[in-house]
């Protein structure tokens, strides 16, 4: 049996509901990379629109087409990372499956890597000759702010650090892979901020094209994940981003708690211990729902039964925290004559640490 020629370039293509794009994708890559031994690795997060079946057909017709199928998980960054981990070629490219990136610049990207002058080549929309196509003014502005933030965090001067279109050497990837944050959409930024030594970057301009089939998956949640990525890269070596998120939400919960407690105190009833208990209960429910949405969005509890069960376990676990919370607050308030707000706050701090540790274990335990 003839041995297939070894791929020089592995092209990793994340997909989520891209049934009507993947066939065309294989065609355009085949045309753009004519003469270059390459392979295509599609990483699909269990799309239900028939993407997987389409990929099986494509793979049957062309052995250069492979697929990694992930179940029960979502995330562009981790999809790209796991796709790359399944390859062995010395050079790797990452490109969207929706034909918005211009595959015709891939040979130029590869040629730059092969000279050895750069570790990473980025397809840029914001350098001479690049462009964002038909984006509306709002998205252009959001992208500009995010780009500026990214330059501050990653130690590289890139015109388009948010690009999802880039190529890199295996060595560059290996130098970063164990320290990646894996948060959200911005895998290039993550790699640049995580590599052991600063990576040598090059840019190639391209025009971002309009999406013809399927829908964009970019939404408000992506913005939150992006902020968490920045937090993780700035202070992630000290505390995990999840803890920061939990505490930030807890901080907002403190305002909820204090507003309720303050109102009762202003009313003059019920007794302080009851006021603090009610305020704790309301803050608890608030914290459960917001944490389920943001801190644990990747393991989010959905549906009536899982949410109810989650809320009950959260309340049960936090009740222990709340007993400590109320107990400490009451002792400080009644016993030591602390101000109502200082007593309330001390109770909350003790409760918060317990809550984070215990709910991570019981309410949102990793599968
Ligand atoms: N496996 C997997 N899992 N693939 C995903 C997921 C996911 O959770 N979410 C999105 N994708 C795939 C899509 O199927 C598509 O091929 C590609 O990732 C990009 O997703 P889009 O939803 O089309 O993103 P976009 O066009 O709005 O955003 C593009 O521009 C951004 C810069 O503003 C992407 O190139 C981003 O990477 C880029 O940062
Ligand atoms: Mn897109």
From TrEMBL:
Membrane topology: Multi-pass membrane protein
Alphabetical UniProt keywords: Glycosyltransferase, Membrane, Transferase, Transmembrane, Transmembrane helix
GO cellular component entries: membrane
SUPFAM superfamilies from the UniProt entry: Nucleotide-diphospho-sugar transferases
Cited InterPro entries: DPM1-like (IPR039528), Glyco_trans_2-like (IPR001173), GtrA_DPMS_TM (IPR007267), Nucleotide-diphossugar_trans (IPR029044)
Keyword tRNA processing among UniProt keywords: no
Intracellular or extracellular location(s): Membrane
Annotated ranges, domain Glycosyltransferase 2-like: 10-174
Pfam family, one: Glycos_transf_2
An annotated Gene Ontology molecular function: dolichyl-phosphate beta-D-mannosyltransferase activity
Domain GtrA/DPMS transmembrane: 246-364
GO annotation, biological process: glycolipid biosynthetic process; polysaccharide biosynthetic process
Residue ranges of the TM segments: 243-265, 271-290, 311-333, 339-364
Signal sequence segment: none
Protein family (similarity comment): Belongs to the glycosyltransferase 2 family.
Protein's name according to its UniProt entry: Dolichol monophosphate mannose synthase
Species whose genome carries this gene: Croceibacterium mercuriale
Lineage: Bacteria, Pseudomonadati, Pseudomonadota, Alphaproteobacteria, Sphingomonadales
């Amino acid at each position: 049996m003839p041995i297939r020629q070894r791929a020089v370039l592995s092209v990793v293509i994340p997909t989520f509901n891209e049934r009507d794009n993947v066939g065309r994708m294989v065609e355009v890559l085949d045309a753009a990379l004519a003469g270059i031994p390459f392979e295509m690795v599609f990483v699909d997060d269990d799309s239900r629109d028939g993407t997987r079946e389409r990929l099986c057909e494509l793979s049957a017709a062309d052995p250069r087409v492979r697929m990694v199928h992930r179940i029960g998980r979502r995330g562009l960054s981790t999809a790209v990372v796991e796709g790359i981990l399944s390859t062995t070629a010395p050079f790797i490219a990452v490109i969207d499956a929706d034909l918005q990136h211009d595959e015709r610049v891939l040979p130029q990207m590869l040629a730059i890597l092969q000279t050895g002058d750069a570790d990473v080549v980025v397809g840029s929309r914001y350098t001479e000759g690049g462009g964002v196509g038909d984006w509306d003014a709002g998205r252009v502005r959001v992208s500009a702010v995010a780009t500026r933030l990214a330059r501050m965090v990653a130690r590289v001067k890139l015109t388009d650090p948010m690009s999802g279109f880039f190529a890199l050497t295996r060595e560059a990837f290996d130098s970063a892979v164990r320290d990646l944050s894996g948060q959200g959409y911005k895998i290039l930024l993550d790699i640049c901020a995580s590599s052991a030594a600063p990576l040598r970057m090059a840019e190639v301009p391209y025009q971002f094209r309009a999406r013809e089939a399927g829908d964009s998956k970019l939404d408000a949640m992506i913005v939150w994940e992006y902020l968490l990525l920045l937090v993780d890269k700035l202070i992630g070596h000290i505390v995990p981003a999840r803890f920061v998120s939990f505490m930030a939400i807890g901080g907002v919960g403190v305002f909820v708690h204090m507003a309720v407690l303050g109102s009762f105190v202003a009313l003059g009833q019920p007794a302080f211990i009851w006021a603090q208990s009610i305020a704790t209960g309301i803050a608890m429910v608030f914290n459960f729902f917001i944490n389920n949405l943001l801190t644990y969005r990747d393991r989010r509890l959905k549906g009536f039964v899982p949410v109810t069960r989650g809320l009950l376990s959260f309340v049960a676990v936090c009740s222990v925290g709340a007993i400590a919370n109320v107990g400490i607050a009451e002792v400080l308030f009644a016993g030591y004559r602390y101000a109502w707000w200082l007593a309330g706050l001390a109770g909350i701090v003790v409760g918060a640490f317990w809550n984070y540790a215990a709910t991570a274990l019981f309410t949102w335990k990793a599968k």
